Amino acid sequence: MRVSQPATRSHTIATTELRAGALKFPAILMQGITHIAPAVGLVLSIQFVASIAGITAPLAYLLAFVIILTLGVSLMQLARHLPSAGGYYTYISRTVHPRAGFLTAWLYFLYDPTSTAINLAFMGFFFESAMRVEYGVRFPWWLFFLIATVLITTLVYRGIALSTGVMAFLATAEILIVVALCGFGLARPGPGGLNVESYLPARAPSANGLYLAVVFSIFLFTGFDAVAPLAEESEDPRRNLPRAIMGSILLTGLFFVFCSWAVLAGWGTANIGGFVHSAENPCFVLARKLWGKAWVLVFIAVLNSVVAVSIACTNAATRVFFAMGRSGALPRVLGQVHPKYRTPSNAIWLQTLITLAVGLGLGFWIGPEQEYYFMGVVITLGLVFVYGVSNYGVYRFYRGEKRQEFRLWQHAICPLISTVALLWVGVEAIVPLPPAPLLYAPALVGVWLAAGCVLVWWMSRTGREAWLLKAGEIAHETPLPVAQESIGQTGD
Predict the structure, then answer these.
(1) Average pLDDT in the chain
(2) pLDDT tens across 310-339, in order?
(3) 249, 303, 404, 454: most buried by Cβ count inside 10 Å?
(4) Rounded to 5 degrees, what angle do the CA atoms 301, 307, 311 make?
């Protein structure tokens, strides 16, 4: 039975089994920012990005930022009208076709459900290295991974308000610490001084290297869409979700573009080779140079960031599993909600199993550090499909069902620009193919997509598509009368 929450004239509340209206705008915004994980994204990736883009690493972040902005504009158009825990699964099912929605969700399974695993495994690797170098203590990465997984599962299981509150606190601390380090770096720049050469394409070591850096940087920006699966637990989702999507992109975009430039300047742009080949993380080296023993604050910021992004990824993934279980696309047991905490408990247990399998499996096979870079390319290539189909859905939705609201820029030009840009960057990044293990990333995405197509074909041939009738269901299609009035007053 659905539980209807009271609605007021100023706030729209979803009709859902989850804890409706539990999240206000700041919490929703922090879900997007935290999922992007600015501190861990910068500190743990800038050395890799610089290794392939050289001094123009900030330019790679900037180009990725521009592409993500156009994607954000497109996603806002669907979030405004289709609030649902299903996110892209619901959007594509409603605007294109339920089978396309399932395929989109199938590729999405390479994204949020695996992100917690790769982030925790990578952080475990860094934690092990730091403890060994700094204190001579052996703390294996897999032990850190297991402890963090238990902590995150507990927080997410016990309620959306608790998990997002912890997440917001950790994310705020990480951003303040990294921005402070960047300020010190600009005040005391290394060899080369302050310059804008990092934004000049001619300074890139190769075009292919810059393209690959942009692809990987797009992966770092992913997370703005993680607010969508929290729609049924958000206050006034039709208004707050689009604001949170664009707000998270703008704030983290400015963070990456500014902080990457400041870190390179603090190190010294004339010594980019030393930055790339530093045996210790260069951000830690820079912090030690500028702050002495207080460098550990940067390490704490990264630790905070990893825990926070893992909470955000788990919240998003479990809500999609819940929505697909509720519609019947996945086993219906995933659509059950805990009677006390109002969280999708069975979906949370499934996500924990996926985290353990992916994190430990890939970590012991190719190493926890290679797992992060390998899955980064896999996720980005998979998202080319997800975002591309979503862009097509925006155009179809506003040329059809919402034709009276069609606007050329938001509903045609932005979706087209971002789709072409994604395809172009994706092709340039893998032609010629990168070295192993990144070499196998395109093959994995192709095999996974083919398997999804076979599964959809099998379901259609065997009559197992009853879930199609509910795939495009959204939380606000049967709102309370007062909620309907509230929606009308917001202009939606």
Answers:
(1) 84
(2) 998 899 899 889 888 888 878 889 989 998
(3) 249
(4) 140
Which residue type is seen at 159? Answer: G
**SS3 letters across 65-129:** HHHHHHHHHHHHHHHCCCCCCCCHHHHHHHHCCHHHHHHHHHHHCCCHHHHHHHHHHHHHHHHHH
Using CA atoms, how far apart are residues 192 and 43, in angstroms rounded to an integer? 21
Q: Is the pLDDT of residue 491 over 80?
A: no
- Backbone φ and ψ of 183, nearest 5°: -60, -45
Strand partners, 4: 15
Sequence-separated contacts (24+) of 277-282 with Cβ below 8 Å? 278/47, 280/133, 281/43, 281/44, 281/47, 281/126, 282/46, 282/47
| Residue 234 bridge partners (DSSP) | 23
Would you say the C-alpha torsion 242, 247, 248, 249 has a positive or negative sign? positive
Over the Cα atoms of the chain, what is R_g? 22
Residue 8 lies in a domain: no
Query: Which pLDDT belongs to residue 469?
Result: 62
Dihedrals phi, psi of 19, to nearest 5 degrees: -80, 90
CA 331 to chain centre: 25
Phi-psi region of 192 (alpha: psi -120 to 50; beta: other; left: phi over 0): left
Looking up tokens 């870079």 gives 373
- Does residue 305 belong to any structural domain of this protein? yes
CB 178 within 8 A of CB 40: no
**For the domain that residue 277 is a member of, what is the CATH number?**
1.20.1740.10
For 471, the domain range is 25-489
Residues 34, 35, 40, 43, CA torsion sign: negative
> Which pTM value belongs to this model?
0.79
How far lies 129's CA from each of 87, 137, 225, 299, 403, in Å? Answer: 37, 9, 32, 12, 56
Residue 20 lies in a domain: no
